[in-house]
Amino acid sequence: MGVDFHHDELWRDHVVTEYLYHRLNPDLVQAFEAHYLECQDCYEEIRATELLIRGLGEPILQRRRVNDVTVLRFVESSQLLAASLELTELTKAIRLQNDTKVLIDMSNVSRIDSTGLGVLMNCYCHAVKNSGALKLLHPDSSVKKVLNVTRIDSLLQSFEDESAAIRSFEASQS
Amino acid sequence: MQFSDEEIEQLRPRVRFKVCYEVGFLCPDVDDIVQETLTRFFAAYRDDKVRNTDAPGAFLNGICRNVILEYRRRAFRDEPMPEVVPEPPGKHLPEADLLELQDAIAAGMEQLSARDRRILRAYYLEEKSKEEILKVTGMTDENFRVVLCRAKERFRNIYLDQTKHRRV
What we know:
The complex is a heterodimer.
Chain A: H1 9-20, H2 26-36, H3 40-57, E1 61-66, E2 69-74, E3 78-80, H4 85-96, E4 101-105, E5 109-112, H5 114-129, E6 133-137, H6 141-149, E7 158-159, H7 162-173
Helix pairs in contact in A: 1-3, 4-5
Chain B: H1 5-23, H2 30-46, H3 57-75, H4 95-111, H5 114-124, H6 130-137, H7 141-165
Helix pairs in contact in B: 1-2, 1-3, 2-3, 4-7
């Protein structure tokens, strides 16, 4: 055996992660199992990593239906920036689910850049093309400013009150 | 050499995790396999069959593998082996414990800053390399280690806290 699993924390972390994903080569699996069976620290490291990965895997976008409107909310503080996971999730949530009446709760969104705006507009076009609408709820001041400077606020309506926002979907339908 | 009760209690969950890793967390016979492994291991120890008593992990691992193989042969004698699919932790827990574990995990996630969460997601879920993350975020290697260690420490405490009153 003779493998030292404590010489580098990052390497051990890599071994633990690969082990949990069942991707470690068989020799290293054997050495690592023999090691953690007698090393409480490494065993706790495995369990901690397992819980951490599970926590990270929880959806970051919460979805609920109010009448026929889909309300999407970022469950944690988010930034809609290029290559961010939040944007990928948002696109998936709107385009893949075929939701056309969508209200995005922006209360946890602290920043947005041009890619974020592009994705919002893309989702807006998708909704409008399918006879729906996309609106925003509780955008914070910095997001509002960006929407205003780019004049996107003339297309994307923003609301501070959820029930008013929901009612506006019904009004625009009639 | 004799094992103390405390050592046995520390050993049991580790063996249990190894068995679950091999046969799946939902296997109904996990505890039987663990018990058989430990019984054989302690018997071998008593009879001085363990050569390297300072590092008995390899020996214990070998016994555990044999017990699992025997179990599989018995259980799947006439059927092909199903593929082992990794299961999320906690699936085997009762619902109330599972909810409490989820709350603890959610609380742990909330303690992480948005930046840390992004970095950890990129590292663990999107499988970006450390170098890629350092390049994008402009962090130093040391900062990256700190983020990782801090997160691990929190979740280690969650795990230890959960194990105080139940089997996670």
